[in-house]
User: What shape does this take?
Amino acid sequence: MAVSIKLSERCGGVCELCNSLPANHEYTVSPKKDDAIQNQVALCDTCLSAIDEKDKGDYWRCLEGSIWNPEASVQALSYRILQSYKEEEWAENVINSIELDEDTVQWALSIFEVADRHKDAFGNILENGDNVVLTQALNVKGTSFTAAKGTIVKRIRLVPGNTEQIEGKINEQTIVILAKYVKKG
Ligand SMILES: [Zn+2]
Assistant: This one.
C-alpha cells in the first residue's frame, strides 16, 4: 500500500527501519489490523521483503538505529525482528541495551505467542465437533450416573473463554467435562 501523506510526513519519506531507502509501503504491525498511523511503519522495498526472509542478520544491523525511533510501532517491529536473531551477538546486545515500554514489548512478542487452545489429556488440540473418550470415570453431577472410563462423547463443544472445559452429552445430558480428562477420539 502506498504511504499516506501523514505517514510520509512522519518518516520524511525514508524507511523507518533502515533509515536510508525511500519509504514505499505502509506496514501495519500485527496484531493491529487498521491503518491508524500509530500502528504503522513506513518501509522500503528491501526491508519489506527482508521481514519475511531468514538469515538476514547482517542486513538487520540497521535496527540498532531504528529501535531508538520514538514511535512505538517502529520500536515494536524492530524488537520483533531482533528477537528472531537473538542468537547473534549483535542482536542480543541491542536487545539488552534498550528499555522499552512493557506494552511495546508485548506488542512485539505477540507474534511468538501460541494462542490458548483447548487441549486433551495428551496435549492434542480439541476442536468443536470432535469426538472424545473419557480417560477416567466421571460422576455426572446431579445424578447417580457415573460415566465409565472409555465412554465416548460425540461432537463436543468448546467452552468459550475457558480452555479447561468442554461440553458434551453423556447419558442424554449435556455436561461440562474437564478437557484434561478426555482423549481426542
Ligand atoms: Zn528499509
About this structure: The radius of gyration is 24 Å. DSSP finds six helices and ten strands in the chain.
